């Protein structure tokens, strides 16, 4: 009986190997791998991250080796470790493939039992290379560059070999430490070369090279600028030239050296003495410069000078959080980082995007600065080591520290693979619709070593998971330990952070009253039953959002009061827990405004509108035209006028809360805010008038008069602000056979009751109805008949009364009577030929008197939004003067709105478009600021505050995106100054 034949493996086709390059079959044949004995080699090649790129590089390498290819080919058949290292690195890095082709003998570096040399061994190797080429200066840089790439090749091969042959891979910290050691050796070699060029036979000056950033922390990338600071015994021209030459050598042979972290940045001296460094950091340094010093480490040059530098400056690092501007500078730096990334690239940014590497590094460094003052265990440089120390010290949970470390290392791994591909500095992911690029990255990162075609899908999911985890832990890092330090028994907290540490952390996060903040937190998580548990889950994220607002202390207090007031509302906490958009928007409102929280206490249902509906934010669902019917219907349910007006004011309160919330959240621009407030004001006046008229007509009597309410000032112009009174005039007309006196008496009683009820003190914001713009002002009768008004304006009207009529419009009451009043007013406010020259002179004198007498004592005329330079009064008086002079000629100027009239002035050619634009921008800016002042302070005011937290809040409330009060104030002063120049020229004649 014959023995069965042994089944021999077949040579796989290029398709089965995953090769898609049309040249793949020919390339396999050129290498002689189309025989049975190369089956294992081919299957190893197929597992390379990019098998086509690896095969193409091997063909080029074979050509470069010539006869030496036989040695490599034979080694690949028998040495599994060599196959894994070589194929993996060629499939991961086009640049290292080019290096091997240029230096083909370097493949032998990947054979055998590889170990990574120590930093001293590396330094010795690089300095020996410098010594060997000292007689041939032209060879030193090429030789050093080749040596550096050879060492990168060995490390990369060890790092990625697991993707092909599942060989043991060095840990993340081993890779980053070795890259830093390699940089140290390169810096030492670059300095030695520079000394030979600059100093010749002279003794080189004492110069220490301090590594900063990732190199200083010994967590360097494959490709990165190496940040350095130079410290010299003498800061003379020779030392400066030596440092400059060292940077040139390093940049040509190895990597870019960046000295931008030195005092004064790129504008400062390249080299300073130790004493000069100390003096700068003691007097001038910003917070971010101390944060950078967290990673300072002597890397090359004079070791004693380097040690002295670190010893002198390290104590200053741990005192940085006590600086007055610590919080504001940290926030400003965080804003700059966020704003530096183009919107279209944020989802692909590994480093600067949301949930990226910078979030981890920023959070860790901030916690180190806060707690390292009293805990030396936090005096470590690397992010991974710092996470371990923070977890061990109880500043963050151990599990959270481990999770954050895992996400950080995953994102750094992807960054390394992206940089290895072309040895270019990058942290930008491929486009998410580029499946092939994502598949390569997934395989290079060994996410799916089996080579499945869905590797890119797994990578997308992993990225999403890690980004979300970093974002979540970024908030939890700062706040969960605070809650643990005060949490009551039963909440399963560890009590790892001391109260003193908790106060330091709150202060560093922007809370000016950390003790009060801790008491608020204790009260919130100490609520009975399930509420306390839900608060404990919510608060880390809520506090993180609050810390980004201008007034986190006020916001936390408002949140506590709101939580206590709504303890009986079952929807409140679950809504915040389940709808992050609602919670985030609420924290922004609470941390910015003193006005809205008071409204929300009595109108909590508005909070439910903070979410998004099918057509957008629910806060925008209300149509202004629907307000009046709602108010009238609500008031009509109450026969008692006091209760009816209370219902009107309650609906007005809810509408105020809705408009102000949408305004603070950037959902409404200033013109829409003014229109919405005006619509609400007119609706409240109409409903209140109906209530009082009904109450004064008992037993079914007919009204002895028709009444119309004429809006004046901002109400008439459709431009009300949060602090605006409702300026009105009342006009009546006898009805039902009544005489004028009876009609006026009855109408006056109605008007007085209406004003009293709307403005009466109560828990709801009062609505003050001001009739002082009527003829003769406060001295004149509150109500007149239409005929009386006509007779008065025809004979006695003063210039200010004519000017006031420019904003008159019907807002409530009898519509026909209101329109007839306006037609009568047109004869006065738009006279044929315009107002007289004498009237213009009187108006100018009156404006000068207002400027001199009505500005409050101590007010700054540059920043008073109403009466200040280029403020609202300046713009409005200028527009109204042009109306008085030209509205008879240009009917389009017959408009009660300041902004719309400005548009008409430009269209009529009365002012240059640039001048009109300056006036428009000033009016809009001042109106935003005036509204923001009410939102922030909770009461009407016209004076912008000085620099500080309140000005920052005003800037945020006014829609200034950076929230920087100083920038906002500079903008306000610039806009109003330019507008004032136009006002002087136009209004002053």
From TrEMBL:
One matching Pfam family: GlnE
Names of required cofactors: Mg(2+)
GO molecular function, one term: magnesium ion binding
Region (Adenylyl removase): 1-482
Source taxon at top rank: Bacteria
A single GO BP: regulation of glutamine family amino acid metabolic process
Domain PII-uridylyltransferase/Glutamine-synthetase adenylyltransferase residue range list: 331-478, 845-986
Gene3D superfamilies: Beta Polymerase, domain 2 (3.30.460.10), Nucleotidyltransferases domain 2 (1.20.120.330)
Entry-linked InterPro entries: GlnE (IPR023057), GlnE_rpt_dom (IPR005190), NT_sf (IPR043519), PII_UdlTrfase/GS_AdlTrfase (IPR013546)
Domain called Glutamate-ammonia ligase adenylyltransferase repeated: residue spans: 88-308, 584-823
EC number of the protein: 2.7.7.89, 2.7.7.42
Alphabetic keyword roster: ATP-binding, Ligase, Magnesium, Multifunctional enzyme, Nucleotide-binding, Nucleotidyltransferase, Transferase
Catalytic activity: [glutamine synthetase]-O(4)-(5'-adenylyl)-L-tyrosine + phosphate = [glutamine synthetase]-L-tyrosine + ADP; [glutamine synthetase]-L-tyrosine + ATP = [glutamine synthetase]-O(4)-(5'-adenylyl)-L-tyrosine + diphosphate
Similarity comment text for this entry: Belongs to the GlnE family.
Function description: Involved in the regulation of glutamine synthetase GlnA, a key enzyme in the process to assimilate ammonia. When cellular nitrogen levels are high, the C-terminal adenylyl transferase (AT) inactivates GlnA by covalent transfer of an adenylyl group from ATP to specific tyrosine residue of GlnA, thus reducing its activity. Conversely, when nitrogen levels are low, the N-terminal adenylyl removase (AR) activates GlnA by removing the adenylyl group by phosphorolysis, increasing its activity.
The protein, known as: Bifunctional glutamine synthetase adenylyltransferase/adenylyl-removing enzyme
Organism in which the protein naturally occurs: Mycobacterium botniense
Source taxonomy: Bacteria, Bacillati, Actinomycetota, Actinomycetes, Mycobacteriales
């Amino acid at each position: 009986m014959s023995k069965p034949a042994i089944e021999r493996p077949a040579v796989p086709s290029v398709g089965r190997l995953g090769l898609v390059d049309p040249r793949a079959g020919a390339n396999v044949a050129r290498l002689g791998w189309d025989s049975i004995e190369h089956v294992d080699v081919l299957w190893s090649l197929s597992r390379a991250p990019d098998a086509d790129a690896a095969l193409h590089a091997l063909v080029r390498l074979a050509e470069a080796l010539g006869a030496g290819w036989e040695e490599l080919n034979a080694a690949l058949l028998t040495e599994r470790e060599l196959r894994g290292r070589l194929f993996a690195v060629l499939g991961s890095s086009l640049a290292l493939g080019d290096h091997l082709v240029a230096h083909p003998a370097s493949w032998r570096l990947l054979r055998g039992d590889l170990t990574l040399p120590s930093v001293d061994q590396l330094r010795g190797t690089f300095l020996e290379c410098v010594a060997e080429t000292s007689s041939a200066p032209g060879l030193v840089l090429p030789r050093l560059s080749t040596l550096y790439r050879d060492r990168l090749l060995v490390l990369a091969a060890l790092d990625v070999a697991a993707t092909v042959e599942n060989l043991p891979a060095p840990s993340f910290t081993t890779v980053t430490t070795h890259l830093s050691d390699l940089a140290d050796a390169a810096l030492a070699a670059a300095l030695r070369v520079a000394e030979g060029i600059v100093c010749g036979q002279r003794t080189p000056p004492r110069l220490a090279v301090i590594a900063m950033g990732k190199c200083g922390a010994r967590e360097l990338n494959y490709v990165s600028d190496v940040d350095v600071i130079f410290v010299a015994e003498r800061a003379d021209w020779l030392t400066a030239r030596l440092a400059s030459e060292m940077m040139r050598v390093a940049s040509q042979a190895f990597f870019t050296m960046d000295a931008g972290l030195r005092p004064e940045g790129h504008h400062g001296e390249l080299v300073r003495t130790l004493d000069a460094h100390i003096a700068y950091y003691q007097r001038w340094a910003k917070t971010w410069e101390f944060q950078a010093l967290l990673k300072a480490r002597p890397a090359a040059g004079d070791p004693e000078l380097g040690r002295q530098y670190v010893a002198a400056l390290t104590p200053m690092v741990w005192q940085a959080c006590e600086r007055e501007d610590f919080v504001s500078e940290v926030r400003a730096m965080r804003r700059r980082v966020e704003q530096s990334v183009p919107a279209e690239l944020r989802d692909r940014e590994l480093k600067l995007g949301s949930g990226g590497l910078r979030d981890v590094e920023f959070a860790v460094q901030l916690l180190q600065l806060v707690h390292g003052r009293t805990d030396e265990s936090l005096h470590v440089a690397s992010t991974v080591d710092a996470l371990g120390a923070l977890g061990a010290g109880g500043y963050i949970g151990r599990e959270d520290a481990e999770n954050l470390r895992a996400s950080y290392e995953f994102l750094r791994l992807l960054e390394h693979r992206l940089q290895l591909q072309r040895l270019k500095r990058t942290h930008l992911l491929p486009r998410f619709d580029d499946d092939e690029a994502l598949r390569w990255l997934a395989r290079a990162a060994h996410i799916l070593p089996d080579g499945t075609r869905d590797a890119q899908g797994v990578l997308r999911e992993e990225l999403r998971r890690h980004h979300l985890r970093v974002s979540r832990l970024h908030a939890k890092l700062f706040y969960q330990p605070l809650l643990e330090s005060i949490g009551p028994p039963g909440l399963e907290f560890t009590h790892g952070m001391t109260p003193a540490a908790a106060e330091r952390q709150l202060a560093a996060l922007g809370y000016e009253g950390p003790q009060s903040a801790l008491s608020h937190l204790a009260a919130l998580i100490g609520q009975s039953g399930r509420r306390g548990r839900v608060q404990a889950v919510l608060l880390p994220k809520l506090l993180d959002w609050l810390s980004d607002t201008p007034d986190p202390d006020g916001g936390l207090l408002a949140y506590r009061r709101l939580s206590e007031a709504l303890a009986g509302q079952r929807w409140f906490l679950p809504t915040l827990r389940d709808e992050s958009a609602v919670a985030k928007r609420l924290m922004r409102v609470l941390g910015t405004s003193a006005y809205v929280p008071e409204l929300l206490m009595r109108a909590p249902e508005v909070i439910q509108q903070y979410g998004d509906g099918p057509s957008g934010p629910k806060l925008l669902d209300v149509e202004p035209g629907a307000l009046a019917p709602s108010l009238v219907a609500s008031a009509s349910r109450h026969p008692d006028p006091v209760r009816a007006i209370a219902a009107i004011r309650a609906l007005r309160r809810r509408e105020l809360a809705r408009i102000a919330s949408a305004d603070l959240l950037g959902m409404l621009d200033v013109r829409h805010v003014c229109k919405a407030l005006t619509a609400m004001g007119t609706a409240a006046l109409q409903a209140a008038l109906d209530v009082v008229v009904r109450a004064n007509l008992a037993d079914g009597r007919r009204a002895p008069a028709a009444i119309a309410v004429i809006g004046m000032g901002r109400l008439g112009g459709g431009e009300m602000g949060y602090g605006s009174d409702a300026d009105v005039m009342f006009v009546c007309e006898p009805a039902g056979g009544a005489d004028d006196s009876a009609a006026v008496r009855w109408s006056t009683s109605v008007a007085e009751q209406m004003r009293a009820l709307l403005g009466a003190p109560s828990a709801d914001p009062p609505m003050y109805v001001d009739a002082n713009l009527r003829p003769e002002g406060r001295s004149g009768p509150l109500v007149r008949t239409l005929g009386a008004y006509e007779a008065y304006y025809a004979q006695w009207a003063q210039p200010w009364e004519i000017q006031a009529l420019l904003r008159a419009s019907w807002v409530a009451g009898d519509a026909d009577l209101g329109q007839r009043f306006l037609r009568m007013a047109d004869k006065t406010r738009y006279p044929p030929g315009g107002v007289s020259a004498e009237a213009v002179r009187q108006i100018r004198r009156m404006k000068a008197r207002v400027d001199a007498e009505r500005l409050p004592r101590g007010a700054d005329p540059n920043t008073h939004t109403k009466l200040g330079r280029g403020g609202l009064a300046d713009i409005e008086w200028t527009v109204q003067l042009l109306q008085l002079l030209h509205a008879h000629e240009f009917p389009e100027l017959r408009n009660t709105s300041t902004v719309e009239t400005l548009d008409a002035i430009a269209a009529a050619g009365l002012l240059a478009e640039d001048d009109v634009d300056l006036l428009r921008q000033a009016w809009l800016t001042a109106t935003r600021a005036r509204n923001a002042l009410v939102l922030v302070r909770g009461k009407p005011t016209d004076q912008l505050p000085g620099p500080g937290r309140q000005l920052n809040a005003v800037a945020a409330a006014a829609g200034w995106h950076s929230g920087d009060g100083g920038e906002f104030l500079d903008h306000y002063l610039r806009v109003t100054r330019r507008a004032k120049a136009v006002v002087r020229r136009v209004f002053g004649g």
